[in-house]
Amino acid sequence: MQSFQEMAASRREWISGVLMPWCRQANFRDLREAEHDWINIAGRVDPAMTLWTWAWSRFPCLVHERLPGVNETLEVHIRISSGETIVGYPDNRESARGELVLIVAGEDGSSVQSGPHNLDDVISAELTNPEQAATLTDLPDHRPVTTLNPEAPTEHRI
Questions:
Q1: Distance between CA atoms of 123 and 10, rounded to whole angstroms?
Q2: CB neighbours of 94 closer than 8 A, spacing ≥ 6?
Q3: How far is CA 63 from CA 68, 76, 78, 120, in A?
Q4: How many domains does the chain contain in total?
């Protein structure tokens, strides 16, 4: 590599071609192990915004590419390894470190939590109303963009 731009492109390629696909297929135990050393693997990024979001993306209806964590805006039904099917909305705040919590309607009409459901126990996840997925296509891109000015003193770089 001859330049910073080539190195940065190589890093982006490794993240999208190796790291993200690994997260989508890795089991819960391996993901938890990676989380402990995530700063050395992925850089100074929050595992909740990368590792676990990428891991949950094996079920596309649970994530949105422009939002970190699980997507709370669409109702899903998940099937877990016990054979149970649960219908509800993912709770991003309560869903942490590979465990999914759903907000479901209780028998009396109140909202109750279901879970946590371990990533390895989730067999499938689908939208209850697939037409709702189109509502997220117009979201603005909120990913931070950082530009490093190579001429700026190190202490002024962000």
A1: 34
A2: 101, 113, 115, 116
A3: 8, 11, 14, 17
A4: 1
DSSP letter, residue 21: H
Give 56-114 as a 3 state SS string: HCCCHHHCECCECCCCCCCCEEEEECCCCEEEEEECCCCCECCEEEEEEECCCCCEEEE
Determine, yes or no, domain membership for 140.
no
158 within some domain: no
Tokens of 104: 């479901």
The tens digit of pLDDT for each residue in 11-31 reads 889 999 999 999 999 999 999
CA-based nearest residue to 122, from 40, 31, 7, 8: 31
Q: How far, in Å, CA of 25 to CA of 18, rounded?
A: 11
Report percent pLDDT > 90 for the chain. 50
Whose CA is closest to 99, among 82, 126, 80? 80
- 122-127/99-105 β-pairing: unpaired
H helix or E strand, kind and range, residue 125: strand 122-127
Instruction: Kindly state the DSSP code that residue 37 receives in the 8-state scheme.
Output: T
